[in-house]
Design goal:
aralkylamine N-acetyltransferase activity; 292 residues; two-stranded antiparallel sheet; 9 helices; globular; disordered C terminus; Aminopeptidase; transferase; alpha+beta
């Protein structure tokens, strides 16, 4: 299942890494100057030197005007030393304001997950019992993105808040199935549960990681939370070499979102969970894992 409100058009703000020489520097000869010549050149450019190297001047960075000119040819750009380059600017985003971090989930996070899951329509939510089962049986397959507020000196240390989660189990099937999503009745007593000769719920050793929920708290949707968590999750599973693929089911409007991470649509899903109407999506590792 996937978060229906995650914005598909989100992108990280771009960074200005281009070469931007000072406008009064185009007449400087910088071939291989001596220390004296370098000091004279830097003095003309308004840069102070200490032992032949430019000083870091934070105040100067803030007062730099916009009289910068683009260099049209690379050969011209290479004539300017590195201190003529404007450092890249990091544009803070709404995600930065959350001071986020990711962490594996456990049974202690059940109530947090129940709260996050309210982002879904009622018929599509994971139940508390299923969270207890999945976070007890295979917690290593679930990941949460938390926010940690800044601590005030006169207040106790704040508790991290779960903002988004990915909860999953293993299956031997190539796609998510209704059987994989079910809660085994005797899971506390039996490691494996079979019905009609087929495994139900989490299958130890299954080659497919079946994601059952990617959810984001409504008040934090549209902040790149879901996409950040998904990228981190894919990276962890791929680097750990513990599965052949990741599978998920989603509604039609979210197919492009998952395709942006490398998932491929396998067409309409046979799952009838929550009333059906899902699309199977699969991210195969295969050659990607072997070459990494």
């Amino acid at each position: 299942m996937s978060d229906p409100s995650e914005r598909l058009s989100e992108s990280m703000p771009g960074q200005d890494n281009g070469l931007k020489p000072l406008s009064n520097a185009d007449d400087l000869s910088l071939g291989n100057p001596s220390n004296a010549e370098l000091s004279r050149i830097m003095s003309r450019a308004g840069i102070q030197l200490a032992n032949g190297f430019p000083l870091d001047d934070d105040e100067g960075d803030e007062e730099v005007d916009e009289d910068y000119v683009a260099v049209g040819q690379e050969e011209d750009a290479n004539e300017f030393p590195y201190w003529f380059r404007r450092p890249p600017t990091h544009h803070r985003t709404k995600l930065d304001e959350l001071h986020p971090f990711v962490q594996l989930l456990s049974a202690s996070n059940v109530e947090d997950c129940v709260a996050v899951e309210d982002a879904f329509p009622e018929q599509e939510r994971c139940s508390r019992d299923k969270f207890i089962y999945r976070l007890s049986r295979c917690p290593e397959l679930s990941l949460g993105l938390f926010t940690l507020p800044l601590k005030d000196d006169d207040k106790p240390k704040p508790r991290p808040t779960l903002v988004a989660h990915i909860v999953a189990t293993r299956t031997s099937e190539p796609c998510v199935t209704d059987r994989a999503m079910r809660l085994p009745s005797n899971w506390k007593d039996e490691r494996w549960t079979f019905e009609d000769g087929q495994a139900v719920g989490h299958e130890e050793g299954g080659g497919t990681i079946a994601i059952h929920s990617l959810a984001v708290l409504p008040e934090h949707q549209g902040k790149q939370v879901g996409s950040t968590l998904m990228k981190s999750y894919i990276h962890r599973i791929r680097e750990a070499l513990i599965a052949d693929r990741i599978a998920i089911i989603a509604h039609d409007h979210l197919v492009p979102f998952y395709e942006s991470f490398g998932f491929e649509s396998r067409g309409p899903s046979k799952c009838q969970f929550g009333g059906g109407g899902w699309v199977d999506l699969v991210l195969e590792f295969g050659d990607h894992q072997e070459s990494s």
